[in-house]
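FAQ
Q: What does a multi-component entry look like?
A: The components come first, one per line:
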Amino acid sequence: MALLQIAEPGLSAAPHQHRLAVGIDLGTTNSLVATVRSGISMVLNDEHGYALLPSVVHYGSGGEVLVGRAAQDEQSAYPYNTIVSVKRFMGRSLMDVGDVGNLPYRFVDAPGMLQLRTAAGVKSPVEVSAEILGALRSRAEQALGGELVGAVITVPAYFDDAQRQATKDAARLAGLNVLRLLNEPTAAAIAYGLDNAAEGVYAVYDLGGGTFDISILRLSKGVFEVLATNGDSALGGDDFDHRIYCWLLEKNGLSALPAPDIRALLTHARSAKEQLSDQNEAHIAAMLSSGELIDNVLTRSAFQDMTQTLVQRTLQALRKALRDAKLTAQDIKGVVMVGGATRMPHIQKAVGDFFGQAPLNNLDPDKVVALGAAIQANVLAGNRGGDDWLLLDVIPLSLGIETMGGLVEKIIPRNSTIPSARAQEFTTYKDGQTAMSIHVVQGERELVSDCRSLAKFELRGIPPMVAGAARIRVTFQVDADGLLSVSARETGSGKEASIVVKPSYGLSDEEITRMLHDSTQHARDDMVARALREQQTEAAQLLEAVENALQQDGETLLDAAAQAQIRGSMDALRAVIGGSDHQAIKRAVEALNLATTEFAQRRMDKSVKSALTGHKLSDLES
Amino acid sequence: MLPIGTDFQQDFFSLFNLPARFQIDSTALEQSYLALQAQVHPDKFAHLPESERRLSMQWTTRVNEGYQTLRSPLNRARYLLSLHGVDTQEDSNTAMPVDFLMQQMEWREALDETRQTKNIAALGEMEQRAQHEMRFLQQQLAVDLDDRHDYAAASGIVRKLKFLEKLAEEIGSAFDELDS
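Then the predicted structure of the entire assembly, as tokens:
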């Protein structure tokens, strides 16, 4: 890969090379990849012209892995080895998934997240998702003719921390640099808002294959502000299929079917659901492995009756989101429909009736999320100047900690704009106590047992003191991806000890490396070469950034000695960047980062000050 | 090096370029917020080195915290008092006027009743009343904080307002409960 061009000192920086970045919609049913070319966001098709990659992964007994349509062809014959809708298992334990009897898999219970036994061994949902992401990455790199600088991966807005972390881990496992996890309805709002120059308060109703989100956004020139979000990360088109499936079982007096029959009937249920979007009835005919024939006709009205409670659940979430935003249905200027499941006529009608206006369907509900993600990826990769927009998103579910009696104390409330942080002080309750445990949960309920447990960790090494003397300051930080990190610091004794805690279900860097190693697709040489290229790219970007910063602010913010020191670190990095020792490059990058820390802080202070003096909002909007 | 130290400790009113008063210009607050976000938001730094990304996250977190603090009347009053060195003693000082406590008990009982009878209309009325009461307390806060500088009185109102915010929150949960 070509290195980025670095302008010589004294010359103005050359317009930098276009950085290849993509947006990926990792969906329950289908996944897509899109990119911005010549200023236009477009979905990248596969070699057969298909935009949608079915989110299906097949593991063969010979170790071969199929993704997409080829995997889909195997799903009825090899249900255990063909994973469909894996997104529903991301960051979920066996207990969370519930109805496992009606899912044709061999589940393995594991701490934090379930796993699946396949012909190629036990696979975690993260590994399965990584195969889908890897296929999209290859598609993009072939289409764009180079390695990607990074990707924006979309997640349901209502995904909790465990589900987000699992998604990010899957992307890392697929060798993608994650520029941002972006909420699906927000991505759709970007695509819609920019396309239509929309202004005002909009609702995005996003019913996908397995998840439902409702987001209320205020769009004003240059700003996309999420006011509130709600949803159900286990409600989607799959559940409508499941209702038809249960109806088929009931109609035919069936129970406890073998896995291939379950998969076959679910597939028939899905196509019946799709037919009922344009027709008044659907004919379902199938032969079971026992030889028994299934032959039923499902009318649209019967289908609508059996799924009415699902539609009601979405409206309930909608009302909650509006209440959180302190708005009513009349305040909403437009409702953008997203997700293939919104094609169902009774969904369109229910949403239209609720808002008293026809929903907006002018962007393809299957593609709009990927298109919006690509637009944001282009911005995040640094391909646009200062004329981009501001995206203010929120955390969907409150974060809290367990207190006495199994109750939850909320630390960061839902719908807080991210990034967000809150510090809380704790103290010891016994003399000489040297450890304490902290339990972090996510959810809206009062009892710990009704919320999702994110992490339980122990703070050790507290200096022995009398009860109540130790001061342990625990900071909860939610980053721009909506991911939580927790750090703790003992301040009472004067000496500070700090730790960083990662939730238990996240993968460590070592685990990612091991998984990459284990994977047959990634030979060791490839990995070393890739690590070197990545390190070189990062180093080149750093040099470019520092050079630009020095040209802008070096003279005003730094004296000659400080400038010389930074130049020295830059030269040291330039001396090793072309070599093959990626550790040496890494060390030089770290040294340069350290040398510029103070400079970066001064630059930030300066831009904060300039933000409020003279620069009024009108400047930002241009 | 030139003396432009990192002023991360400046108070939120200075950060948002607003006078340190309870009554604030909410439009000016929002404009400052957006102007600051446009400078510090992580999306502007995603392609830059790790150290700058971290700095951006810290700044944005602070800007968000400041906005949350100044936007909410209760948080703003509490923060303003803390700048004057006054602790509002919301956990320790439970000595509330008797008539206020009586009124609170009446509201709690009424809330329980609407929950049991699933009376959404009554819940809506209650919400209106709570909002009205909160606006009244906010007007009092403006007088005590900005005109009379009576911080002890203002602390008392903050404690009352906290009770009402808790009530409003419970009314919100009751709406969710009746809707499921």
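Q: Is there any commentary attached?
A: Sometimes. For this entry: Residues 524-557 of chain A form the longest helix (34 residues).
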